[in-house]
């Protein structure tokens, strides 16, 4: 939480980024509503209290919203000074990421969002509880209640879309002079309510052939030069190979580099040799009806191969129909290495169309 977010609003100060203006607002009787609004979101999570653990930054930057809560929580960090700063925000984000949290939930406005954007890792899911004066960025829920609902849906395993949303911040000095001057701070990954891609039947079911083409197009457009791509088994991965007009081993693992096939139906030993010598990524799909992403039909992708590739270079693809057929059950991993399975557990982003993806929970 940014403890002073929004305090400049009632005082007509057009923002709360300047600490001198914060003091001016306080002298004028203005108060920040961050704590109250964050508590509303936390209260909305009571129904999933057995499914989540909250990691909160110390004191007024998080802990204060949980002291009377029914939620399980633990505290990290400390606040050394009376007035918090953007350095505290950045420190909080870095500590939370070190705890491997699934979602960073923050309370503030555009200034807070920008400070988080400066240090957040690519792909880390973030969601803002709107509490600021300036909220022009696309990273905020509609209101504190909506923020709680989104978190609950994710905790319950409901399909939740994710997008990369822009973080914008308005120059407060110019704004107070009547000039709107927005600065682009970057993009962050945020959840939103589930939306289907355009190619759907009237009942909300996807046209599989079209969706597979969209997934393939998204993956291919994001392929980087010089990277080895290990494509797992299954028809969803086969759609990528078909779009590339390359030979495919439906029940095996093939390797593509610079859109050319460099290894067909690879063994575990061959894969480990490849990934140990050059940067690589893994592209796998979900087994329909079961939900496994590792350990069923792709044992060539062994624990040592996965570790060598690194977890951040794991790409999961699936149609939303296949995910919905799991009926809110988590995706499963069974690599044969319990410690790796634990590291794979949590939320993962699954590509479900062209520039369209959802969050899914992974369980050992």
Task: Provide a brief overview of the structure.
By secondary structure, this protein is α/β, with parallel strands linked by helices. It has twelve helices and 15 strands. The strands form three sheets. Strands 5, 6, 7, 8, 9, 10, 11, 12, 13, 14 and 15 form an eleven-stranded mixed sheet that branches.
Chain-wise SSE layout:
Layout: H1 19-27, H2 34-43, E1 54-57, E2 73-76, H3 86-98, E3 103-108, H4 110-119, E4 125-130, H5 144-155, E5 160-170, H6 172-176, E6 182-192, H7 208-221, E7 228-231, H8 235-243, E8 254-257, E9 260-263, H9 268-275, E10 280-285, E11 292-294, H10 303-309, E12 314-317, H11 320-324, E13 331-333, H12 338-344, E14 346-353, E15 356-363
Parallel strand pairs: 1-2, 3-4, 7-10, 10-12, 11-13, 12-14, 13-15
Antiparallel strand pairs: 5-6, 5-15, 7-8, 8-9, 14-15
Helix pairs in contact: 2-5, 3-4, 7-8, 9-10
Keywords:
elongated, 12 helices, 24% strand, 15 strands, eleven-stranded mixed sheet, Rossmann fold, alpha/beta, two-stranded parallel ribbon, 364 residues
Largest sheet: 11 strands, mixed
Q: Low-confidence spans: pLDDT under 50, at least 5 residues?
A: 8-15, 195-204
Structural class: alpha/beta
Question: Which topology of the largest domain does CATH recognise?
Answer: Rossmann fold
The radius of gyration is: 23 Å
Number of strands: 15
The pLDDT mean sits at: 86
What general outline do the C-alpha atoms trace? elongated
Task: Bin the strand percentage.
Answer: 15-25%
How many structural units, i.e. domains?
Answer: 2
Question: What is the H-and-E element order?
Answer: HHEEHEHEHEHEHEHEEHEEHEHEHEE
Broad CATH class of the largest domain: Alpha Beta
Distance between the termini: 32 Å
Please work out how many helical segments DSSP would assign: 12
CATH architecture of the largest domain: 3-Layer(aba) Sandwich
- Helical residue percent band: 25-40%
